[in-house]
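Task 17 of the worksheet. Students: predict the tertiary structure of the chain below and write it out as structure tokens. Keep your answer in the requested format; marks are given for formatting as well as content.
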Amino acid sequence: MGYVQEARENHVKKKVEEVTVCCSLVIALRSKMKAKALKQCDYYTSKYAECASGRTFSVVWACRKQAKELNNCLHEFTNDEVLEEMKKAYSLQEDSKRPIGV
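Model answer:
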């Protein structure tokens, strides 16, 4: 294997590692974001669950108002803007952990 090919393979491996770490981070942040949203929207979750209790197919139209309220609340806490804020906060936190001059 030549030097150029080896350098390319190393470069590709590093890029794959970066993407893997980045994807893992995004998945972890999304999970954290969803958990926080569920906690923040607990009131609407309870209202929807109460309405849906004992229903099967009729839950779709009988609990439409509660479902819409729950979805609106969840969307408030689970959107791209919130995810970007979480990424920035994580980045700032990681930067503060690094020693100065590195």
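Marker's comment: Residues 67 and 91 are 35 Å apart (CA to CA). The longest helix spans residues 3-40.
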